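Exam prep: given the inputs below (a chain plus fe (ii) ion), describe the expected output before reading on.
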Amino acid sequence: MKLRTIKRTMAARPTVDGAGVKLSRVFGYGLTDLFDPFLMMDHFGSDKPADYQAGFPWHPHRGIETVTYLLEGSVDHGDSLGNSGTIGPGDVQWMTAGSGIIHQEMPKPGKDGRMFGFQLWVNLPKSEKMCDPAYHGFTDAEIPRFRADGVAVKVICGQYGGISGAVRGVAGSPFYIDVKLEANARLEIPTPGTRSAAVYLYRGDCSVLSSPDGTGKTGECRERTISALDEGEAALIAAGTDGASFIFISGTPLHEPIAWQGPIVMNTQEELDVAFRELDAGSFVKVRS
Ligand code: FE2
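Solution:
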């Protein structure tokens, strides 16, 4: 079996988005060849509410899915489909913007002023970009877990160890798990053939191994870095002495043209122009509550 090796490693970079939220951009614009069908990943979080409380007031999305996964603090949200509520620690919100949604996401501090989580943007295939918007929300308790010795895998989307993830019925076949490995524990993650795959280490340390006996290390992952992996049938990840907490994503590349402006990602400039004209004209949202 061919194990995946590290193709490229990148550190998350500090940036400011929304109404002035300080966050770390794990990857984004210009890197779709490496992460296709994933467009962007942000790691947001701080123990200073002033860094994030301005939040992400009402804004549009079209042509993508936004996936918010929170570990600490909370996010109050509302959208043009009529959904509203609060995402708490461990909860996931998988939002299919499709033809258009307008929403807001306002982070709130948890314990000791902390707020911490991730947002991933998944591109929609051309055929689905104008689909009806949809919303999937799951609490921490509703997300299935796989457990083994020294290993805990939260299966957000896709299948791991015979366990189906919480999020189903979304376009393509995205795979999204949150993994905790105790010190020196290992995890093999099957990743069919040509799918894109990446590991984002958010705590601890781990290595990507190139041989099952553990003699070959293709690279060490550092905290707050993402490692895009080469093609292969599985990834074998070993925690170091501090244990490791990481997000693992994989998906089938779309290989489609990208026209991306702010929160809207289409295939052509003309489609972007239409979207922004519709926003000005008040006809952007096609499906409301
Ligand atoms: Fe958004």
